[in-house]
Amino acid sequence: MKHLDEYRDAGRARALAGAIARAVTRPWRIMEICGGQTHAILRFGLDQLLPPGLDLVHGPGCPVCVTPLELIDRAIELACMPGVVLASFGDMLRVPGSRTDLLAARARGATVAMVYSPLDAVRMAEEKQDQQIVFFAVGFETTVPGVALAVREARRRGLRNFSILSAHVLVPPALRAILGSPSSRIQGVLAAGHVCTVEGYEDYEPLAREFGVPVVVTGFEPVDLLQGILMCVQQLEQGRAVVENQYSRAVRREGNLAAKALVREMFEPLDRKWRGIGVIPLSGLALRRAWQEFDAERRFALPPAEVEEPAACISGLVLQGAKKPTECPEFGRGCTPERPLGAPMVSSEGACAAYYRYSRGHV
Amino acid sequence: MAHGGGGRLMRELIEQLFAVRLAPEHETDAAVISLGSKRLAFTTDSFVVSPLFFPGGDIGSLAVHGTVNDLAMAGAEPVALSAAFILEEGLEMETLGRIVDSMAEAARRAGVRIATGDTKVVERGRADGLYLTTTGIGVLIHEGELAPWRVAGGDEIVVSGDIGRHGIAVMSAREGLAFESEIVSDSAPVHREALGLLENGIRVHCMRDLTRGGLASAVIEIARAARAAVELDEARIPVREDVRAACELLGFDPLYVANEGRFAAFVAAGDGERAAALLPGGAVIGKVTGKGAGVVTLRSVIGATRVLDLLSGEQLPRIC
Fold first, then answer.
1. Domain boundaries, chain A
2. pLDDT digit string, tens, across residues A30-70
């Protein structure tokens, strides 16, 4: 990973920051979609290098944060069932549901296993034939192909004790909802480079046109982010609004065709509730009919549920770039990583966690 | 579980429960006790690592190194250890044998005697194979006291080698993660290096071995206890490429990843470079900028600064 150094080069970063300062003639508000980008911006202090008036706001790109309470409760419910192991990425474990989180449920006897890949959960299913392994499939477009492969592998191995609880979500429908909101003040967008490695960026082109908002597909290192911001600012200053690709070392316009084909074969879009935001049409993914035997909600016949969000948590506004975490009255007081009100305070991609961890001394 | 992660919750547990009830004189890894003309350091530590064996070590060698290192941080030459085993029913004799052999070998290399011990067996399911507690005594080799209150403005901060290897090695063994090259734990006794600083006339004010919570947590704890403002320079903190790559992959910050054979020393202004030269892989990574509320800032590789804070619990691997 030596190549990372060139994208963390102080000289290049400062040169780009200078170019941004020279390009900007008035205030602009740009949304970085991905929580990984928010963390990099605060971790490296990139916000300190930007000219005053250039405002970066956080977007919905934290899959853990937007997973609705109902699905987390459901995961906990499954983990508490005898004979069921809930396998999850580590990031999900501390996220509060309506009553508790997975780590706390585990401490009280629920069976929760932390895995690094959905294929680990398939292997677990093969080893523990007497138990039902449910993989909590959380993530944006980036993680779906891995889950698709795992389900296909489970069928190939004839495993009848593997299923997934799908919480998969898609970026473009969410971005449409945010930009289309009458209160939106977002003028430019940094799209998430990793998401676009899979799906490409064709889906962003109508959004840029329709809402007159430039979109720059951007990576995650300091030099990437500053370059993406510069490209976005240049478009704004010139009155252009098209999709450009800063992250061309990893992203092609059409994306990864093999991965896309696999996902389309096995998953179909459905309306999905986003935590704090509400239902966004066709913004989630569920297994298609031919693969539904691997759908945990069907296998365990879980009834539909509806849960109220805690009123004090403004994570919905944070995830839409309408408020900064530090504008929340509970930030650092009623809501901390030890005792979170909402998911963005505990996820490693959460905006509130990033502000809490990296910039409390400055605010 | 987060109370054991070496972060903020563990701090709260120590300050609000143990310190209130037990009222120790000083908050250091080893206590200093005077017996006649001799000044002794006294410490204890429990080990619950899973898996029991990992690249570069095992729970046995780890338990020797951990306690030897706590003594060394007080400026003491380790003399003797005790070892108390809690064994889970069903633990293979062969496994136990290998661990005890490893302890004996680690003690021999460190020049310390395992003088006494105890063994208890608990039912299957009541322990994770084997838990091990080591207690150690050592003799102080210097007149002064090494403690946070001695930290002064202008002090330089030295780290004894590259950071983050132990945490990544254990993680890769525990989870079966395969990285391009095997990352081997840094588990080792550091007393010769640490005492070498004192013997060579380095004006050491405070030392702390980097364990759970990593370099960042150790420096933050000293800064808070000393009420000192500290600035670290990210570009000067040694992290091996493979460790950095593994951290990038998992979404970890190497500053918070565990070590078992590294320490940080706060030394008087002007002694930093000489101290770093005495340590294989040592580096001056920052300085005390003055008095303060114990705030540690990190100058990032691109030159901006941010505040380092204790983590709330353990770092958990991210999704993508």
1. 68-168+256-299, 315-356
2. 999 999 999 999 989 999 999 999 999 999 999 999 999 99
ipTM computed for the complex: 0.72
Residue A168 in contact with partner chain B when CB distance is under 8 A: no
Q: Is B314 helix (H, G, I), strand (E, B) or coil?
A: coil
pTM of the full structure: 0.83
CA distance B244 to B242: 5
Dihedral of the alpha carbons of B262, B25, B141, B104, in degrees to the nearest 10 = -50
CB contact (8 A) between residue A45 and residue B302: yes
Q: Check pLDDT > 50 for residue B7.
A: yes
> Cβ of A89 and B245 within 8 Å?
no
State the Cα–Cα distance between residues B256 and A262, nearest whole angstrom. 38
DSSP code of residue B16: I
Decide if A90 touches B, using CB distance below 8 A: yes
Q: How does pLDDT run across A200-259, given as a tens digit for each residue?
A: 999 999 999 999 999 999 999 999 999 999 999 999 999 999 999 999 999 999 999 999
Cβ of B316 within 8 Å of Cβ of A90? The answer is yes
Return the closest-CA partner of residue B129 out of B171, B87, B94.
B87
Closest chain B C-alpha to A101 CA, distance in angstroms: 13
Looking at the partner chain, which of B295, B302, B315 has a beta carbon nearest the beta carbon of A44?
B302
Contact B304 A44 (CB under 8 A): yes
Q: Check CB contact under 8 Å for A49 and B9.
A: no
- Check residue B182 and give its pLDDT: 82
Return the sign of the alpha-carbon dihedral for residues B308, A229, A281, A258.
Answer: negative
- Cβ burial of A38 (10 Å; 0-12, 13-18, 19+) is buried
Question: Which A residues in the span 18-37 are in contact with B, Cβ-Cβ below 8 Å?
Answer: 36
Looking up tokens 């951290």, which residue turns up?
Answer: B247
- Whole-number Å distance between alpha carbons of A245 and A251: 8
Residue that wins the pLDDT comparison between A349 and A151: A151
pLDDT band, very low/low/confident/very high, at A8 (cuts 50, 70, 90): confident
pLDDT of residue B248: 83
Looking at the complex, report in whole angstroms how far the Cα of residue A10 sits from the nearest Cα belonging to chain B.
Answer: 4
Cα distance between residue B119 and residue A323, in whole Å:
58
Interface test mutation site (partner A, options B11, B174, B319, max chain A beta carbons within 10 A): B319
Burial of A308 (0-12, 13-18, 19+ CB in 10 A): exposed
Ordered DSSP codes for B171-211 = HHHHHT---SSPPPP-----HHHHHHHHHTT--EEEEEE--
Mutation to test the B interface, candidates A1, A169, A356, most B Cβ within 10 Å: A1
CB of A107 within 8 Å of a chain B CB? The answer is yes
* Percent of chain A residues past pLDDT 70, beyond the cut: 98
Under a CB-based contact definition with an 8 Å cutoff, are residues B98 and B130 in contact?
A: no
Query: What pLDDT band is residue B27 in, cutting at 50, 70 and 90?
Result: low
A68-168+256-299 fold: Rossmann fold (3.40.50)
Residues B222/B294, Cβ–Cβ less than 8 Å: no
A195 to chain B: nearest residue by CA? B320
Q: Per-residue pLDDT averaged across B189-197, rounded?
A: 97
